[in-house]
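Listing S7. Sequence submitted for prediction.
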Amino acid sequence: MAKQESYLVFDTKEGKVKLVALEGCLCDSTWGIFNIRRVLEIAQAFGWDGKVPTDDDIRKDTMGYHMLSEEATEWLNANVAEDGYIFGWNEGEYYYLPSMSEVWY
């Protein structure tokens, strides 16, 4: 599957972050464990009120913060994802794709 460019756009008229041309890999595996922070930042941009850790925090408690990114993913899917789409991890990468995408299987 070819990766597509992804964008988060802040709409000043409505005062909200919204999805624009967003489908595909949001965080590729080259960022390693620090994708956790990137996922939390995406969720926070959409209004999730959880804590975004520092890189040092992630190094000290990778699994704990990964679990927090799972909570943020649940929040994104409940509050941001369009019908038929989901946010989620697959093999160290983070995606926003149709729920029936081959990536999930």
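Caption to Listing S7: primary sequence and predicted structure tokens for the chain studied. The first helix runs from residue 35 to 45. Residues 23 and 96 are 5 Å apart (CA to CA).
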